[in-house]
From TrEMBL:
Keywords: Signal. Pfam families: DUF4846. InterPro entries: DUF4846 (IPR032315). This is DUF4846 domain-containing protein. Residues 1-15 form the signal peptide.
Amino acid sequence: MLTAICRLLLFFSFAATPITFPAFDVSMRSVADIPLPQGFERVPVAPGSFAEYLRRLPLRKDKTIYFYNGAVKPNQSLHYAVLDVSTGAKDLQQCADAVMRLRGEYFFGKGMYDSIRFLKGDRTYYQFAAYLKNNAADTRGSFLKFMETVFVYCGSYTLEQSMKRVNDVYSMQAGDVFVKGGAPGHAEIVVDMAVQRSTGKKIYLLAEGYMPAQDMHIVLNPVNTKMGPWYELTDEQKIVTATWVFDKGQLRRW
């Protein structure tokens, strides 16, 4: 009951105040194409890094969010763009699952199967390399089936427990995750960052999945709508996103 009430409060609190967002440009192909506020430039990322992978994530031309069953999400006002990443046909790939999916996709693309591992509630790990030895061949289908198992038995709590706390929010990096473990819980991943050279001010983009399972998307900034999907690093204790409110102490790193 508490979970349902929290979701309703979040939905109506943000839906009641329309968000004016910048026009979506269908020519954008990836996160790297999302325009920056004036005076900002993207921070350098290492070639082949997780941060570079996230910046290269493809965007769909259609910015409509669909649920896992093909239904259109009723509220389409809280996001800027939709990531071109499959959701699956089951109600499994939700918030923390979306974060783990991106992490797994990164390592799968690099052939680093030993690094595709996610913490379970019993403090052991689901490991893709072991899964391949016992169940399947090295195929993309095998990877997606493995991730479905992860989605069932892992979640925001285990994700939070498997990551290290970032004590200084100003040291944020692309790939870091805001995560609140538990029920209700939520997770959003930093997919890009930029800096204003004249002031040193940093901004970042957040992506999320949600419940029920739905297309991953870039969330809008409900506090400063002029920033579109960009969030500014500040001294504020609370980070108010389009669908959740995090404490800055909930920032985690792989």
